[in-house]
Amino acid sequence: MFFKFILFSVALLTSVTAFAESPKPIIREEHKIIIDGVEESWRLEWVNTPSPACTPPDNPDWMNCPCEGFAFGERGDLVLVRKRPGQKEERLRLGLLFSEAPADFGEAVLQRWDVQARDYTESETPGFASRLQARPIVQIMRFGDYDHDGSATEFVLQIGTLPCGKRMSVVVGVSRHNKRLHAFSSVRHPETPLVLQAEHWESLLSAKGPINVIHWRCWDHASDTEKELELKAEKGRIHVTLREYECKKNGRGRLIKEEAL
Questions:
Q1: How many C-beta atoms surround the C-beta of residue 218 within 10 A?
Q2: Which residues does residue 168 pair with via DSSP β-bridges, in sequence order?
Q3: Is residue 21's pLDDT more than 70?
Q4: Alpha-carbon dihedral of residues 136, 52, 193, 229, nearest 10 degrees?
Q5: Which of 31, 86, 114, 160 is the most buried (most CB within 10 A)?
Q6: Segments making up each domain of the chain, as ranges
Q7: What CA–CA distance (Å, rounded) separates 114 from 95?
């Protein structure tokens, strides 16, 4: 299961696709960003009107694990559009990065409104939908220098979940080594997007050197091994090492596996 999310094959890693323009695109979010001294426009665009995802009453299971990070959301054909003066528009189809529920094939899912503590008791009360829609829309593109190349030109995008509450995510943007829109990868596997838990990406963002994070703890969902990742980002290169340990009654045991991812 771990490798299914950490390294999975996605057609056209740097798939800046050329497909027909939709007659009625829906702009979800748009930002200005300065790259190499030039102001660019980046926007998330639904090709057509999105459908609800992990939102009551259509989905009463919005509070369960598969919807963690996606409730209260929307789904559909989503494109990251980049406009740079004097250059042809770039379009990256983000649905190709999603491979699990609640997304269908080729679909992307974005959280639209934050989940609040009181929602767990009020989601079935009259007027909840109206109160929900009055909330601010969640910002998706929060730019940071996740690969430590000196430029904050990428953002974290959740693409799935693992049991329970692990928000599996990629980083999307441009870098020193690839100036086209793409999903970032590790040094070891440049052909596939690197998928980490969202909180691990945030830890890497602020790290001053190599860091160790736990991907899967002993006895989590009956696992008899513990998986730890060593993450290091330096000059635009991301290094990942997996270490797997046996589990004992009193905690972690001996190292049984180590490999670069």
A1: 19
A2: 160, 197
A3: no
A4: 70
A5: 160
A6: 2-9+22-260
A7: 22
